[in-house]
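Weekly puzzle thread! Below is a chain. First person to post its structure in token form gets bragging rights.
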Amino acid sequence: FFFLPQEVISGESEEESNGVNLMEFSDEILLHILSYVPCTDLVLNVRRTCRKLATLCLDKSLTQTVLLQKDYKVNKDKVKQLMRDIGKEIYQLNMAGCYWLPSSTIDHVTRCKNLVKLNLSGCHVTSLRLSKMLSTLQHLRSLAIDVNPGFDASQLSSECKATLSRVSELKQTLYTPSYGVVPCCTSLEKLLLYFEILDRSREGFMLSGQLMVGESNVPHYQNLRVFYARLAPGYVNQEVVRLYLAVLSDRTPENLHAFLISAPGSFAETGATKNLLDSMARNVRLDALQLPKAWINGSGLLQHLKFNNPFYFSFSRCTLSGGHLIQRVINGGKDLKSLTSLNLSGCIHCLAPESLFRKAEDDIDSSILESLVVSCCNLRHLNLSAAHHHSSEGIGNHLCQLLSRLKHLLSLALPVCSITDVAANVEKPPAASNLVPQTFGRKVRIGIQTYPRNLTDQANQKIESSVFWALMGSLRVLETLEIIGSSFSSAMPRNEPAIRNSLPPCVRAQSVGDSEVAAISQLTYLQSLTLAQLPNILTGSGLVNIGLQCQHLRTLSLANLGMMGKVVYMSALMDMLKHCKCLRDLRLEQPYFCAGAQFFQALSHCSSLQRLCIVSRSGTLQSDAVMSFMANCLEVIMCHMFMGESLTVCKNLQQSIVRSFQADRPALNVVIFPLLHEDLTEVIRDVPMRHLDEITLFKSRVAEEPPNLWW
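Winning reply:
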């Protein structure tokens, strides 16, 4: 927050004071400033400083919506006091991901009699507590909850069911096969389902996708406008979602305008799902669409579906060709000005006229991309990662040149091989010193030059007229950028042992390195950056440029940069971190990473850091340096390290951190574990979903979901 002058606290004014008296600002300006302060601080601290702030801090514009979802300092007592002071004024309460709060904390929500929206995703809520709470919230219209093992819908009271019958928006995360509260919600218009059911219990028993006894009630979808389902890997999740879809296949809601199913791997189409899609093609006009790849590949579904004013499409991992994309989806450039988010991740043929005889590494057809750019000129989120999008020779035909026309882009994901200059690859192959060995040995020794310290020196190494440099210069409002190798895979998959081998980078990507990273520093408003599998990183000098120029950077994820047997960019990374005052999340994945005293000393400059994740095969750490870092960086509440240390070293360090800092940091979550240990998957399952989904597991997040899917 801000420091209040002593004269403000005492109620006195001194004209001779050189400082700015905050109380001289208008109420409108002060309310705007106060809107950036966590509600708990406003109500429990700031309003006690003076009479004027005591009044302003209770203004309806500040108390009607209470966001606790990333207030990691909040505890049970603060929530209790907050609800006691302003409970009746709260209309929207977001406690998503507050995993550290005991379940009894939910009891205090009953004071919020006027609640309209409530988000309890990630909170510990039993069936009985949920019933007691919802029985008092008669105005509730939007609800988000988790359904955990032991949930029993028969324990819900009639008053609770009456409240649920008025709920029109429901977000439900399932950790056990169940309908949850869906059958009670007879007025549903928006239904979001997240399936996180594991195939095996902790005891090793195989789980069934059959619903529990008493779970035979049928969901009510007649008023449904939005249906969204996201599945974690596993066959049980697929079995359960089919039960939810069975009702839709019998009768498709007339007002359905968004139908989205995100399913990894293979999710086969059945007779019931085919009937559902046929019914949708006949009866509804969609604004948002995402389907499993098996439901689209080889079918003529897209040419039969009708769209109204589409704002989101995801064809992730589909074999959809560029010809079909233009003809069946973009419809020759008609009616696509409304599209703001497009996910073509893993859609390897989406920029080629046909896919039958095409290799994934063949050049793209620039006319297809040009049609896409012209038709979807208002795109704000675009994902083209996990594919080989190689540009051909020709003036103005490069992918980067065409994308530079999308002036409204806020987030962009590209494969590494798509940003290289064609001439650089055709006319001048990478020098021998730039060819990066992709083995995990230490036998190859490469001389490293001192990296340049500023943009001017960097420009001397590579002309700033490169297509990628020009693209970065044109996307002035870009906030999220992902540059990911087309063959990159993280060493930490979701429900499997750690990956021991990685595929080599694309040949076209071999020349992408420090100069391209330096070009990113032109993005003044960049908030989130992901760089993975950039093979020609020799010093990491571009990282320093980013640290200096991108002062709004909050999230940084670096993986497999440069040679794999040595962390060649460590010195530059440490210099970069000294400038990242706003950085909150840092994820590093690199073999042989040494998390030692020098690294943690540099990281301590990141005064806003909250979450740290390091994934390193054969990596090492210094326990004393980690403890010192945790003591210096008071905001850190998540420390995940998956390294090459022994189980004993990892356990001792984890216990020391928890013992030393848990009392002062209620949200502290520490996992330090050997990366290649056979029990890694069992450890991962205990990580709070908020951290697991947002930082610990690597994935492309651009256009992963429709914008503003949930509040």
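Puzzle host: Confirmed. Bonus trivia for everyone else. The longest strand covers residues 306-314.
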